What we know:
The complex is a heterodimer.
Chain A lengths: L18 H4 L2 H4 L9 H11 L3 E9 L5 E8 L4 E8 L18 E7 L4 H8 L14 E9 L1 H12 L6 H7 L1 E9 L9 H4 L10 H26 L8 H6 L1 E6 L6 H4 L1 H19 L6 H20 L5 H21 L9 H12 L2 H12 L3 H4 L22 H11 L1 H4 L11 E6 L5 E5 L14 H11 L9 H7 L4 H10 L18 H12 L2 E7 L2 E6 L6 H4 L5
Parallel strand pairs in A: 6-7
Antiparallel strand pairs in A: 1-2, 2-3, 3-4, 4-5, 5-6, 7-11, 8-9, 10-11
Chain B lengths: L22 E2 L3 H14 L4 H15 L5 H10 L8 E4 L2 E4 L7 H10 L12 E7 L5 H11 L2 E6 L2 E5 L7 H8 L3 E9 L15 E2 H11 L3 E2 L3 H7 L8
Parallel strand pairs in B: 3-4
Antiparallel strand pairs in B: 1-8, 2-3, 4-7, 5-6, 5-7
Amino acid sequence: xxxxLPQPTGDLxxxxxxxxxxxxxxxxxxxxxxRLSFLRQLLRRMESEGWRFDRPLWDINAKGVGRAVxxxxxxxxxxxxxxxxxxxxxxxxxxxxIATAWDATFALFDGNPTPEDIARLEAxxxxxxxxRITPHELSLSRANRSVRLFAHVVDRLAQGEQPDPAxxxxxxxxxxxxxxYGAGKxxxxxxxxxxxxxxxxxxxxAEMLSVWLTRQFTTDLVxxxxxxxxxxxxxxxxxxxxxxxxxxxxxxxxxxxxxxRHPVLMNNWMRAREEALARVRALPTADADSLxxxxxxxxxxxxxxxxxxxxxxxxxxxxxxxxxxxDLIANKLTNWPRTSPYPWDDLxxxxxxxxxxxxxxxxxxxxxxxxGKLIDDLGPTMSADxxxxxxxxxxxxxETLRRLIREHFxxxxxxxxxxxxxxxxxxxxxxxxxxxxxxxxxxEDGAELEQPLCIARLVQELHIALQGEDGDTTVAAFLxxxxxxxxxxxxxxxxxxxxxxxxxxxxxxxDMLPIDLMRCKLAFFGAxxxxxxxxxxxxxxxxxxxxxxxxxxxxxx
Amino acid sequence: MSLTEAxxxxxxxxxxxxxxxxxxxxxxxxxxxxxLKAARGAGMPWGLAEEAGFAAGWLAARGIDGPxxxxxxxxxxxxxxxxxxxxxxxxxxxxxxxxxxxxAGASLDDHAGLPEGVSAAPVMVGALRHPVLAVPHxxxxxxAINAAIEIGxxxxxxxISADGEVDPAQLTALSKLQEAQxxxxxxxxxxxxxxxxxxxxxxSAETLAGLNALSMRTTVPASETSRRGAGAMVSDNx
Lengths: 557, 238
């Protein structure tokens, strides 16, 4: 195929969204996965590089207790998921990070594990946070069964029947992970050890690989248990049902601060996505291929929306918006594109004035879908080499620092923190469970131990502290006198050159919803079926409707 | 510069106290995070506590027990102390006591390209507590100004290459100092020093317990309200 790829024309700047528009909690809380999401990047690479997969160890008894190893064999390196299956009494099953036992536990091993490696992991991985792993491991995780669906599927398969499609659709997964720890956690390899590998260059690739292989494990386990119970009579999952099963994930408030703690990383995620949108909007044509691909993506989005269930009032309202918006988009596409210098930009502008935030962000995802050749190169740019304490530019003058605050933190200066609704909460770490929590500042103790997550207020305080300073004073001299402002000064300096580094909203306001932060992060992972269980707790699904390892063979383009 | 892209989907903390073993090997990410929290727990402002995490992680990655040095420093760090004053080429504490090596290291780094800084002329710093804890920032300066730096104390010397590495034997010698006045001089980049192999200095049970105890001071005791709000509010057995 020698057809020229249409290229964006003109200056991309006019097609870019501003950080003020992109970085609000409400819009972040409407984020949808895109083809740049991390699990999509993983699958694309493994497919194009022709990775092979096998299961060199399956030592699981009829009760579902034992161990298994899954290997992903790439052109240069091999990664192995080492899985331990347990017999967990119902009363011990908890998705909270404070749980001490799980239905299954996992580590992603860097290479081919020896029997000694597996024995070492067996002594530690089932303990999760209370165990230790080593730089040979890239992730540590665990999963709990969806009790109802897991039992139903095993029962049906054991009787030689397929599970009830309604039951499968209502849950969507056999197990849900309740934590997937990577990069240096509990002794695992630091990010720097794997960052130079092309297959690990994009964010969270080890974690995504671990979860994807876990999905295979969950379907193998139900088929194994059904065969143990039903013998000859037992059926295997039919491919379509199996395809519709993902891996669930259950996560709480602990995930919410991540994006605030990693400003450069968040900037790079957002910047890549926004750059992709700008490139598409700047295209001069919408050809038949891309139109067909767009319509296919819309059909898939409508099918997914139809299966997406939640009982949480906030999400119920959003799903209603989404359904209506997808209908509007479908209707719009019946007379699009019209003759225009920038048909995709026209579609985008139509969406901005017509759709809710939910629909706008869904449209973004749809518009990126046909344009892999144009935007997929942005995937590896989404990582960041973040130092724990980025170097301060001490030679910068106070006047310049003030200017940066005015340019990048106007939204922060505009919040009135004297209003008790605007400083109603505080983020802290609980002594009891060492997990991040949100307190009520005006009725609970502990605000003096607040975590530095409300960047808006910290930058306001810096701005005030700078007021009496001479403009020519250096930041070095200012911070020597006032070291308490070092944290905020660093954030301000990071903002220059990283326009998407900050959530441009009040993170301690009375009505702030932590799930908005979580949805944004999970959408970048590639998670679907976002289902809040409270304003601080969500379930999602990963890899639903995507291929399994054994379905990847022959898909090499 | 250290790389810590902490891929922690839940960001809940490691509990080290459950490992009563003589030595524990932490990842650099864990060392940095634990030391950041400990420094904050000991009363450092957040921005300096981050520098403390950086310093301890940099040293541990070079086989030096920076976390133990940091713990020793934090345990005896005078409250409210550490304010710096510069007069001519001499950096010292305002109250005349020995300087906090984190405050001094970070401030030297901030001033690297300024007239008061190391690149302009030799600097005398003193006295400095646990001088090895200032070395990571000095190494960062050497890289930033692309010049080698010589650290002198009590007639001895250590050499930081222009790419920010220190001879291991000299770094070990520095780590033995409880307190010293040091002189910093930029010098011609004579030789390169290989970056360390990726291996972390293991921590003793005492160091872990001590840092953990300090880091716990950043946490808030549970209340009924906070316990109620943390979970899913519904059963996970569905």
